[in-house]
Structure formats: structure tokens, C-alpha cells
Amino acid sequence: MSKLPRSSRLASPVDTGVHGEYRITRRPDDPRPLYRFSDHVSDDPEAGRYHLYAGWFCPWSQRVTIAHALAGLEDVVSVSYIDNARDGRGWAFRERYGPDPVNGFTLLRQAYEATEPGFDGHISVPTLWDRQTSRVLSNDFTGIGIDFATRFGHLAKPVVETYPEHLRAEIEATDVKVEATDEKLAALDERIGDREHLVGGVLTEADIRVWVHLARLGPRIAEYPNLYRYARALYQVPAFRDTTDFTTYAHPDWSLA
Predict the structure, then answer these.
(1) Are residues 115 and 203 in the same domain?
(2) 68 with 238: CB under 8 angstroms?
(3) Is 17 contained in some domain?
């Protein structure tokens, strides 16, 4: 870990006038961001080997931090947060959440370029860093979340088994994209009905994937009574509540409490 003074390990403020806007790299025939890394953790991972770079504002990142908490990995996989705003340089480490505790990088881009010189893909959170190989292991949020849920049982006792083998096919079949249109939300409200969980009557990865988007609807979610009840109930679970900062969703005076 770098021993440089704290102030020298923080990025300068966002400046789109100097650095421009961040551009998400995509393939010409695919509108999705180009994620370059999708490796998995080792079959027998050690405590302390991996570090998660996360973002409070990002639903994809929160999927992983919730999975991390439910898997009981607080003392197994370390977590730090990048700043909430970016310019053309991409995500950065600034005063609000502090410097990069692993590498002393000021920009998350440096982690990607250390892994692949001249990197031209999407710089995103969550990003899983491998301390042993000094490279980005993955920025595939689905894969990271599943790895957290399934590969660390020898190191930590999970709070909840969020990806049990007998429910995996149903979890993947139930992966719901929450679109903020009246029609889509009304359909999802009806689908949830009076259920507490989406799959198998228990808390699973399926609930995590839906909840992070519902939480970002803000006060609008109250228009859908089943969704509102469901989202509020999940918010009572510490892993959901403790990974949530509503001020980063542009709803600073609202919560699901």
C-alpha cells in the first residue's frame, strides 16, 4: 500500500471542461457497455486476497455489496468506494470516501491499465481486484455477486444462502429488468402481489436484483402498493439498509424506513 500523504492520493475535482464527459465504450452492434474482465475467484480463495471497488450510487454495484454482506464477507473481502461523480477520466477517489486503500490509485482507470496497458473498455463499478496477481479480476457484476454467494463458504458463515443450487435456474429465469414505465411497474406490482420474496419463498439473488432498482424509484414507488411493501420489508434487512445511501440517488429527503 502506498505511504504517500492522504492529500496526494486523491484525484482532483471533476472538471468536464478540461477532461470532457466520460464515454462508455460499446461495440458497434451492441448497445451494452463493453465489460472486458469476467474471471472468477479461485476455487479455494484466501481471506484478504480480493478487494472490491464499489459505488454507493450504482445499482449494479449495490447488487454486489448486498451479496457481500449476506455472504458474511466483511472480514474476508475488503471494500472501498469511489466518488459519486466522474468526468472524462472515469471514476476517481476523492475526499468524500477517501483514497484507494489497496493501490493508492487516484483514478479507477489506473487499475484497468495496470491489468491491460492501453485499456479501451468500460471502466465500471463494481470492480474486483486480485491482490495476489495485482490485476482486475472482474467487472462483471453478475459473476462477482454469484462468486460472493457461492465460493467463500469455507471462510465465512453466510447470513443467507442467496444462490442455493436448487433455486438457481428459477433465479435466472426470474431476473427482472425494472423499467420505470407505468405499464412495467404495474405489471411487476401485480406479479409480486403479497409475496415476501420472488423465488422459493426465501431471500435470494432474485430479490437483490430487483430491489436495487426499486430503491431508486424514490417516492414514486408508493404509487405501487405491493412494490412499496416488498421494498420496505427488504430494507429492514441490514445488508440492504447498510449498503444504501439515498442521497446518492437524487432523493436526499426520502427513504424506505
Answers:
(1) no
(2) no
(3) no
